[in-house]
Amino acid sequence: MEQFPDNDDDVFTGKEHTPLRNDAFELDPDKKIRKIEGLFAEIMHTLGLDMTDDSLKDSPKRVAKMYVNEIFGGLLPENKPAISTFKNQYKYRQMLVEKDITVYSFCEHHFLPIIGKAHVAYISNGEVIGLSKINRIVDYYAKRPQVQERLTMQIVDALKDALGTNNVACIIDAKHLCVNCRGIKDTASSTITAELSGIFRTNPITRQEFLHYVGSHAKFD
After folding, report:
1. Which residues are marked as active site?
2. Residues that bind Zn(2+), according to the entry (predicted)?
3. Is 107 assigned to a binding site?
4. Is there a single domain that holds both residue 113 and residue 152?
């Protein structure tokens, strides 16, 4: 069952929330690092590795710091990017598209990388956002154990909230290493997810314009 802190609802923007416990923020990052370090050392020991070896002895600390501060940094509310918007002084009323935004995330089922590109678009309702903020939003929600469908929706919902418009769309095309390097080991396949909101969903011309810009021939009803 998914549970969320009452005072951190904005951290979990998205139709499908990141599943966190109510006590997810009781430990500060330093305490989390120390705890994970000990637990990962136990995993390595269980695998039979010599933890006195110079190459391995500091690996638990490196992994713990990487988990908390880097690849799962999107689980820390303090890392949520400040999203400032500006008045649309130029009266630009057409679609704005930022394509090929790098996505690095981790599959929550096997904790293996998801690597791909996000394509994001919106139509201003009077407010615009700095381009780098779009990249930061993608990066923030990607830095969690994820499923690609949820990540796509979280990006769109965060932009809808920031911009005060439903006219937002996102497509992600990514490779999942849990498919590529284990199990079926299919290195050629990738996964495409789309979240189309507002006019991107209701207007076929707008939708096809977006798909044309990002180079997708997919059709979404």
Report:
1. 107-110, 148, 176, 178
2. 107, 110, 178
3. yes
4. yes
What is the rounded CA–CA span in Å between residue 117 and residue 138? Answer: 10
Residue reference for tokens 């290493």: 177
Tell me the pLDDT tens digit for each residue of 45-69.
Answer: 999 999 999 999 999 999 999 999 9
Q: What is the pLDDT of residues 181-197, one digit of tens each?
A: 999 999 999 999 999 99
Q: Is residue 217 marked as binding?
A: no
- How many residues appear in the chain? 221
Give just the sign of the alpha carbon dihedral 50, 54, 58, 59: negative
Q: Which of 70, 101, 128 is the last residue of a domain?
A: 70
Q: Is 77 exposed, middle or buried (0-12, 13-18, 19+ CB in 10 A)?
A: middle
170 annotated to a ligand binding site? no
